[in-house]
Amino acid sequence: MIYFILSFITIYFILDYLSFFGVFGVPGSNQVTIKCLYQYYCSLFDTFQKPSIQNLESTYNNDYDTVYGYCCRQLFNTFIQNMKNDINYTNRTMNIGVSPIHHTSFRDILEQNFAKENIHIFDIDENYEKITIPEEKKDIDYDIIVITHLWGKYLDITDIKQNIKGAILVEDVILAGEYEHEFNNSADLLFHSCGMDKRPSSLFGGYVHIKNNDDDRFYIKEHMLQSIQELSIPTKREVFKKTFDCTLLYLLYNVRCIQNMVKLFLYVRGYKLSDIIQQIRKNKPGFEHSNYMKEPTKLMIDTNKSIYNTQQDTEKLFIKNNKLFISQFTDKEVAVLFPWNKDFINTNSHISCLPYNAVYIDEKYQQRCIDYFDRHNICIINNPTYKTFDHANIEVKTFLDNIFYLPCLYNLTKREIVHLSKYLKNIKNN
Description:
With 430 residues, the protein is α/β, with parallel strands linked by helices. It has helices at 2-17, 34-43, 53-56, 72-85, 104-113, 158-163, 220-229, 236-254, 256-269, 273-283, 298-306, 311-326, 331-337, 343-347, 363-375, 394-401, 414-429, and strands spanning 57-59, 64-69, 96-98, 102-103, 119-121, 123-124, 131-132, 144-148, 168-172, 189-193, 206-211, 357-360, 381-382, 386-387, 403-406. The chain has a domain at 309-430: Aspartate Aminotransferase, domain 1 (Alpha-Beta Complex). It has 17 helices and 15 strands. It has an 8-stranded mixed β-sheet with strand order 1-2-11-10-9-8-3-5.
């Protein structure tokens, strides 16, 4: 037995020396702490506490209050349902203005609740940084504007603010820039997620900053709090499943020897690494696909309040690693592979808080790239995050189909980040 173990260890280190395991990391992240996992496992031995109305809200500053939920999509869905049921809209059709690219969950909630002729898609510029209103859509009387910020930065929505008055401005800032700038647009609602790959990172929860508005037509915060309290809290079975799934992903994403052993197992069994990673992301263990309309427990809210200020350190890490990665490429390569980061060409600065490592790969090169990364045991998957609407123009759909995710940079060393860039450059140059 000892001989077998020593032989296995020897083989493992030989393979590691020969770079068989490729670059560490996966196209997703799990930044949940061991302490957080421990707390949720311990909570299974106690009675779950429903939060009081005081637990569900807090005062963020003089202009905004914060409401806490089970997850971000629960909060957004609650807001949408409340607006649809509001007396101001019961006898007329609502018009929703949207940026063209959203998270899957936000896109799905909007499409499920509004007809496509009432979802008006705005334009995005060629650098994928600025949202503008098409001429034929400027005279529409909008009720709600939903903007999803992208690329770990804030989109420019100056045109929206200058030309649309009276609509409720909603911003999804989950994958936006530094959180200290999130109030620059004076939005009415700003949605955050506390998922395992977000800022701040937890297992459960999300929160929304709601502006204290003199307009008393909607009572958004009051209605949201009431709706959340009418939901049931999750069962212990549901909490255990999500905690267990997240624990497995934590080990797979963050423990090198485990990740390497999985890669070796897949290689021996003849599986393609890209196929397995794509399947894992599609099933999304650790995420609720449909059963997310729940009230958070008191522990969930207390946990997310306690880790709120940790996101600043996370942002600094993302910015540092993203800048190191992008700096390995020439201006021409940046324009082709990262068209949303052309600001780096002009300013030589790169401030992106994106936890993912997105790259643009033209359709004619995609299979060659996937095969190349598979041969080198490096994870790559097609864009699982950014989606558009069924009635969006073909240019946006094609653009999103050409986005791929490489291993996330947050837990890579400087050497590994530079090494990963060389693999990507090799494909482009061959």
